[in-house]
Amino acid sequence: MSATRYRRFLKLCEEWPRDESKKGRDLGTFLRQRVAHAFREGENTQLSDPEKCDQMYESLARINSNMYREKFPRVKDTSFTGVTVEECRMLLSTGNMQQMDEEKKKGLWKTMMERFSTKPEETPEKTPEK
């Protein structure tokens, strides 16, 4: 019976999309790691709680098939803040997160000093034409 569960989870992992903008931090990668950890011995793994395993599989399969998205459709594709899906993806991308970490490492004082100490660009004085 464990072999069947293992194969079902492997199929689910294959179907689960990966988000390339979140390298190593997306749900698909996490799911694959958890399945590998839970089924360390592959089809020969003895599960301590098969019922819980089946419930977990069914829950993940419903999420993957967008059951809840179809059951409870959204009126708008924005959140309460007005941020669109594409803007959220951009903000949560790995590159943007690294940039935010670098800003955080600078410290609040240094960041504030950089923002407020920038001198406005000097405009060259116009000379009267002759």
Indicate the topology.
Layout: H1 2-15, H2 27-38, H3 50-64, H4 67-71, H5 85-92, H6 94-106, H7 108-117
Helix pairs in contact: 1-2, 1-3
Keywords: Mitochondrion, Mitochondrion nucleoid, Transit peptide
GO cellular component, one term: mitochondrial nucleoid
Subcellular location: Mitochondrion matrix, Mitochondrion nucleoid
Write a concise keyword list for the protein shown above.
7 helices; UQCC2; Mitochondrial nucleoid factor 1; mitochondrion; 130 residues; single chain; mainly alpha; mitochondrion nucleoid; transit peptide
Structure, described:
It holds the Pfam family UQCC2_CBP6. Its main location: mitochondrion. One of its GO terms (biological process) is mitochondrial respiratory chain complex III assembly. This is Mitochondrial nucleoid factor 1. The chain is mainly α and 130 residues long. The protein folds into 2 domains: 1-73, no CATH class; 77-116, no CATH class. It is 59% helix and 0% strand. The chain contains 7 helices and no strands. The chain has helices at 2-15, 27-38, 50-64, 67-71, 85-92, 94-106, 108-117. Helix 1 (2-15) runs antiparallel to helix 2 (27-38) and helix 1 runs parallel beside helix 3.
